[in-house]
Design brief:
- The complex is a heterodimer of chains A (357) and B (258).
- Chain A has 357 residues and is mainly alpha-helical.
- Chain A has 13 helices and no strands.
- Chain A has 2 domains: 86 residues, no CATH class; 216 residues, Orthogonal Bundle (MetI-like fold), CATH 1.10.3720.10.
- In chain A, helix 9 runs antiparallel to helix 10.
- Chain B has 258 residues and is an alpha/beta fold.
- Chain B is built from 10 helices and 10 strands.
- Chain B is globular, with a radius of gyration of 18 Å.
- The N and C termini of chain B lie far apart (42 Å).
- Classes of the chains: A mainly alpha (357), B alpha/beta (258).
- At the A-B interface, helix 9 and helix 10 of A face helix 2, helix 3 and helix 6 of B.
């Protein structure tokens, strides 16, 4: 007997309505406020000292509250959704906390010493106990050292990436280069500094100069540039290369005129991020640029300073005046990195392939 | 301006895998030759051997002869770059250069090959865009990015780009498969016009299209997955579609293929 014909329809175990009971949209906010109030109450009752513990309690109450409310009103699936959503929010807050904390501390402690004088004067004849003085010598030196490092690392790095992506295709040399770039990525900055110290200053008998510092920075910057450029070149669709080759354009010209322009936005961003990474390097600077309180605009001769080194020196001097200067130097450094990132964003947007009509 | 292609004993490989086996055929000048056959039968691979684009893929190589008016494309001392200037190509998906404007896209082949004369370039751009039936649609926005055009317009832009370097032969790898019927019609009309000047070879999965646009049709097949593709037969298009000499061709065309 055939069973495929008209068997009466079983009632579905799933709910048959399309609408379900929903919590109002302001629930998460209300839960958050409730969680904070509850955390404050608990904190007071049990006289918990640390405000950090209060915040953690509030976070836990928020997550639990979201879950329980959704479980009671909306059902299991929505409750899971609520649980995960609130966990994501809490994680987001935790991630932002250090960033904003860092910015807040640096700005609030550093803004006091920032002035035109601070930006335009060196530490010449200023003792650690005196106020005044500035970062000018360190700012100039850092800009020069980073510019030199970029001048070396960006072309070498970009060309290496071009080799890896466009010409390497699985040859042993490409594999070896790729491997050593990975190794370089993991080189601690102090090791790069030691290497230049031994090789450049001790074996080749060169001076302690800003240039020696920029050599160490080059080592640190190179793998970052290679990796980011490589990723950007890989994103360029193969169809564009083939289109160009099929027009009878030689391969090198295809790379120069089609592949690199298509990826230039991403490459610029990568270089800028590499700069942001090396501009704060302290360890190699401790060993290589010697450090000075005087203005030396020549990176090839005589000792120079550097912003991170300045921060370190001022902080270790230990007086209130010098520590305030350390925060000021840190603020200048952060502002510089931010400025560079903004410039990078601008260039990336300006150079990116335009898709709109 | 158009040249005859004589292929004899051609094998194409990807590494150790032979994708195309022992193909011999003649492509007549100033005509449209269509390649049809199931997916994976080596039509596109064979097409790419005709302008030495096959070897762009790492590990790919070719054995055999491809004579372009008695000059072997795979002979000693032949520069693949020069071959590709003579034998142009249009791809399956429209691929205008995203960093270039419409005008720069069309002029790319000339500019990148060293033509500097503004007047020559402007004339070539207009001639090619007119030739690709695109001039009237884009003449007011030549400086806009090429990626802002619709898919069909982009494909015609790519055709204009290919014919701007004045090749002898134009290879088209499923040029309409990503386009809607109206854009397809525009391209097909264009092919009919272009064959007065160029030798055209077109790969297509659309048999009506092969029947509409081509003078001769070649049917490719493969005996099993993992086996190399072969040329089954090549003949006048009417004959292939009405009375093919091989049973497999008739099965494929009538849709009885497995």
């Amino acid at each position: 007997m055939s069973t495929t014909t008209t068997s009466p329809r079983r009632p579905s175990p799933l709910s048959s309505t399309l609408t379900e009971r929903r919590l109002p949209r302001w629930t998460p906010l209300a839960t958050l406020l409730g969680a904070i109030v509850l955390a404050v109450v608990v904190g007071m009752v049990f006289s918990i000292q640390s405000k950090l513990q209060w915040a953690l309690l509030a976070a836990i109450f928020f997550v639990l509250g979201q879950y329980l409310l959704a479980r009671l009103v909306e059902g299991r699936r929505q409750a899971k959704n609520g649980l995960i959503t609130s966990l994501v929010w809490v994680a987001f807050m935790l991630a932002l906390l250090p960033l904003f904390g860092l910015l807040y501390y640096t700005i609030s402690k550093g803004i006091g010493v920032i002035s035109v004088d601070f930006l335009t004067h060196s530490m010449n004849e200023i003792s650690p106990n005196q106020t005044g003085g500035g970062v000018y010598h360190a700012l100039i030196a850092t800009l020069e050292q980073v510019a030199l490092a970029t001048l070396f690392a960006a072309p070498i790095g970009i060309l290496t990436a071009v080799y890896l992506v466009e010409y390497g295709n699985g040859r042993w040399l490409a594999k070896a280069v790729s491997f050593f770039v990975d190794v370089m990525t993991g080189v601690p900055s102090i090791v790069a500094g030691l290497f230049i110290l031994t090789f450049w200053i001790m074996i080749l008998n060169m001076q302690y100069t800003g240039f020696a510092g920029s050599l160490a920075l080059t080592i640190l910057m190179l793998p970052v540039v290679v990796r980011s450029t490589e990723e950007m070149l890989k994103l360029v669709p193969n169809e564009l290369r083939e289109a160009s080759l099929a027009l009878g354009v030689p391969k090198w010209l295809t790379v120069v005129r089609v592949v690199l322009p298509t990826a230039i936005g991403g490459i610029t961003t990568g270089v800028m991020l590499a700069i942001a990474r090396i501009i704060g390097e302290t360890a190699p600077m401790l060993m290589l640029v010697f450090g000075t309180d005087l203005i030396n605009t020549n990176p090839f001769k005589g000792p120079q300073s550097s912003l991170p080194l300045y921060v370190y020196q001022q902080y270790s001097a230990g007086t209130p005046a010098s520590q305030a200067r350390a925060w000021g130097g840190a603020l200048v450094l952060i502002a510089l990195v931010m400025l560079l990132n903004l410039v990078a964003r601008g260039i990336a947007r300006w150079k990116a392939p335009k898709a709109s009509r | 301006m158009a040249k005859r292609i004589d292929v004899s004993g051609l094998n194409a490989y990807y590494g150790n895998f032979r994708a195309v086996e022992d193909i011999s055929m003649t492509v007549e000048p100033r005509s449209v030759t269509a390649f049809i056959g199931p997916s994976g039968c080596g039509k596109s691979t064979f097409l790419r051997t005709l302008n030495r684009m096959h070897e762009v893929v790492p590990g790919a190589r070719v054995e055999g002869k491809v004579l372009l008016d008695n000059e072997d494309l795979y002979g000693n001392g032949v520069d693949p770059v020069a071959v590709r200037r003579t034998v142009g190509m249009v791809f399956q998906r429209p691929n205008p250069f995203p960093t270039m404007s419409i005008k720069e896209n069309v002029a790319a082949g000339l500019k990148l090959n060293g033509v500097r004369n503004r007047k020559v370039i402007d004339e070539a751009v207009e001639r090619s865009l007119v030739g690709a039936n695109l001039w009237n649609e884009v003449k007011d926005r030549l400086d806009r990015p090429g990626s802002g055009l619709s898919g069909g317009q982009q494909q015609r832009l790519c055709i204009a780009r290919a014919i701007a370097v004045e090749p002898q032969v134009l290879l088209m790898d499923e040029p309409c498969s990503a386009l809607d019927p109206i854009s397809t019609l525009a391209i097909e009309d264009l092919i009919g016009k272009l064959k007065e000047q160029f030798t055209i070879v077109i790969v297509t999965h659309n048999m009506q299209q092969a029947a509409r646009v081509s003078d001769r049709t070649a049917f490719f097949n493969l005996s099993a997955v993992g086996q190399p593709g072969r040329l089954i037969e090549i003949d006048a298009t009417e004959k292939i579609f009405s009375n093919p000499s091989v049973q497999a061709t008739e099965d494929y065309i009538s849709g009885r293929f497995g």
